[in-house]
Amino acid sequence: MTIPRAIPDLAALPRPVFARAESLAAGSWTHPHSHDWVQFSYAVRGVLEIRTRRGSHMAPPQRAIWIPAGLPHEVMTSGPAEQRSLYIDPAALAPLWGTAPARCRVVEVTPLARELVLAFTRLPGNYDEHGAPGRLVGVLLDELVALPEAGLSLPLPADSRLAALCETMLDAPGEDHSLPRLAARAGMSDRTLTRLFRAETGLSLREWRQRARMLAALPELERGHGVTAVALEMGYDSTSAFIAAFRQLMGRTPGEFFSPAARE
Fold first, then answer.
1. pTM of whole model > 0.90?
2. Signal sequence span per UniProt (predicted)?
3. pLDDT tens digits in sequence order for the chain, 264 residues long
């Protein structure tokens, strides 16, 4: 079951940085929409997914997603989630960023950034910009813009033939989508597919497939499904191969990444 979410009706932000805290049910989603402000979406619990025309971006609790102002996007969660969203006036970020990025970015959330976000979301919407809350905002923005990017974005190609192949792989991440099969389906040679795919996405076909499978695995692992079952569902021959691939992308094993200690 899917549950549509209402988009906040804000004509303008009451402060340069404004926070929203939401408890999201499993299957929550929004219609495509955009904002005049930059958005920083962080899930304290659960896994957030942001979809745009050019890619999918996944954020488990230790990650967050920057969404540029004016970019149409959808927000969805396959399982329950606790979301903290910061709406930020681009002018507040200009001195720190210079030119704001034109694409979504998934970033690693440090323990300090996490505590700053949680502290800020507890403030009233009309906080004192010139007092202690205003100083907290300054520290918060300094920390957020410095967060390192994580490899949890899945770019989608503009070429319609490649986009169709990507949809096939996303619909069934565990199937054997070999290069010859994909090339034949797209009506091109293996070499042409390999060259064009990297030019369109910045990733090799193998890298893209592996990342797609890891992103599909995140919600399953977050819900407590066993590593072996998820590995088989994602098409891996062994649990050890899945764990190695997960560690390569996430920097930790699934057990380490989703342990209670890792969320603190």
1. no
2. none
3. 678 888 878 888 999 999 999 999 888 999 999 999 999 999 999 999 999 998 999 999 889 999 999 999 999 998 889 999 999 999 999 999 877 777 899 999 999 999 999 999 999 999 999 999 999 999 999 999 999 999 889 999 999 999 999 999 999 999 989 999 999 999 999 999 999 999 999 999 999 999 999 999 998 998 889 999 999 999 999 999 999 999 998 888 998 888 765 555
Task: Out of 145, 166, 196, pick the residue that ends a domain.
Answer: 145
Which residues 6+ apart lie within 8 Å of 236 measured at CB?
A: 213, 242, 245
Residues of the domain holding 122: 3-145
Total structural domains within the chain: 2
Residue 136 contacts by C-beta under 8 Å, 6 or more apart in sequence?
116, 119, 120, 123
Pair (20, 59) in one structural domain: yes
21 with 69, same domain: the answer is yes
Q: Convert 173-210 to b/e letters by CB count within 10 Å (16 or more is b).
A: beeebeeeebbeebebeeeebbebbeebbebebeebbb
